[in-house]
Amino acid sequence: MVEVGISFQTIKSLLIFFAPIIIPRAINLYRGLRISLSQAGRIPPRPLSPLATRALNVLFFAIVLFLLLSLPVNPHAPAANIFSLTRSRLNTPTEVIFTRLARHRADNVLTEEDTLLRSKLTSMAARKAYLRFGAEPLINCQFCSPGSLQSYLLYYLPFNVLVPHLFHMLIVGLVTSAPFAGQEAAQWRNTFTLAGLALAAVDLYIMATYDPVQSASTAVKFGQAPPSALYYRMALGRPLAFTILDAVYAALIYVSATGRLFFSPPSQADQIDQIVSTATSSLTSASSKLHALSVTRNAVVRQKVLKNRDDEYWRAVVAMEGSGGNADGNSGSIWEEEEVVKAMSRAMNGQARGGIDLSRLGVQAGEYVDEVTAGLENDAVERPE
């Protein structure tokens, strides 16, 4: 593990700076947790919404990605610390270090990068810079000098520290976006953002203040043990921290989206918006149906054949309802005529030609009515009186 020497005064300064930010949020988190636990027994868990599921899927892939990047065997892992690889001490001569390093290379021959590093690793300041930032700044930085470690820091930070944290904050912003992840995840936006910024601040602080000699153990200082490399530990520890943080994010989104913890009932404004939205959708559906009916009626009226059939239909309806009078001047219904009564009697007794199945006819009629009036009952129930 990396031994980072942090004095009590440094810890005190950090607490003075972060305490006004962390303590109020911790208190609010504790109160919210107590309220959620008290309501957990009364409110059944809700199923995950599609938006919350989308946010959890993104976090799952992010966790897998960062976990793979935290493994030493991944293709993008940093080069191994040559002091640990060759079991060399901090004061071991450069030629001895690279002679041992050649044994770990193919055909016992140093690579071009090893040769360039050997030409740079000639002083204690250069070795400190190597242990903090790795071989790449020593070899490729054009404005850096061993006498100014801050120049190596400026070269190292953008692509090795800031870019990973910006990528992680991009993921946090995506999974806490209300249009993408829903309101349950969006409520954690400020908390997740502050946690990500705090992690970035700690990372920057370690990279800016770590001294491989002053922070090393006594055995390393006296040349009895190989020194550890900060760049190697941080390159693997950084994605591991992202993995842990994203796992916590996913857990918080899950328990809040399902109502297990941190549940807050919908406000009165949200309830009104939901009622208005339901009423608007019902009115829109009814309006579309009325418009379709109007179009159909206009088509029937404008077409001569359909208009005649429609007139015949309504005349037949009027006749069946007995609205007119018979030849003797007595009002009556067509259902009372002798031929109709006999036909109905034969049908009821099953004596009509073809043998009418009344039960099957009733089922078919019911299915037809249900099909024609589908949705009307639901609209009538949903529409307020």
From TrEMBL:
The keyword Transmembrane helix applies. Keywords: Membrane, Transmembrane, Transmembrane helix. The chain crosses the membrane at residues 6-30, 51-71, 155-180, 192-210, 230-255. The keyword Membrane applies. PANTHER family: CHORISMATE SYNTHASE PROTEIN, CHROMOSOME 10, WHOLE GENOME SHOTGUN SEQUENCE. This is Uncharacterized protein. It comes from Byssochlamys spectabilis (Paecilomyces variotii). The lineage of its organism: Eukaryota, Fungi, Dikarya, Ascomycota, Pezizomycotina.
